[in-house]
Amino acid sequence: DAGVTQSPTHLIKTRGQHVTLRCSPISGHKSVSWYQQVLGQGPQFIFQYYEKEERGRGNFPDRFSARQFPNYSSELNVNALLLGDSALYLCASSIRTGDQPQHFGDGTRLSIL
Amino acid sequence: QKEVEQDPGPLSVPEGAIVSLNCTYSNSAFQYFMWYRQYSRKGPELLMYTYSSGNKEDGRFTAQVDKSSKYISLFIRDSQPSDSATYLCAMSAEGRAAGNKLTFGGGTRVLVKP
Predict the structure, then answer these.
(1) What is the CATH number of domain A5-112?
(2) How does pLDDT run across A50-93, given as a tens digit for each residue?
(3) A43: nearest CA in chain B?
(4) What is the CATH classification number for the domain harbouring B41?
């Protein structure tokens, strides 16, 4: 069975631009969470979606938004990109909200120039 | 102060040695404890998962949770060069309000030398 898949694998943007990252959860998983991992640090929680509803939000500005689709895939959007947004963006899925453990994809590496 | 503290390393051991990793935490609401392994340019890969206190063993890996001390450990026996990676501890509270939010340590870089 396929694991969590994310696209694209690598993206280069310039300051002020907008970016959309995509995630497909493991088949049968209905909960998707997004994390930001800056180089040399552990992942930081951004959002959780379950059944298309936001169920949790980390300490990130409103420039970050997300949504979940009827097939449980998800998009993370970041507006007005800053240099500090350069990071590995990880998606994790689980069967339902409150379920542990979660399984991660390999992430999208976002570089801001 | 961070909710979860983890020594960044690097931790260098000879092949065949026991690797000992640990994390401390401050949030007494944490009930789920996980260890992930992360290779360069890859996502975290689940190694061990424990609910509440106790020990769990899986092959060469042993995870321990001491909630009274707010301290968790991971031991890797008979370490191999392929175990060279960054090891992340992660924790979560229980219940609907907690959702799926994981709080991670900063990761410990491990190098197993042949």
Answers:
(1) 2.60.40.10
(2) 989 999 999 999 999 999 999 999 999 999 999 999 999 999 99
(3) B104
(4) 2.60.40.10
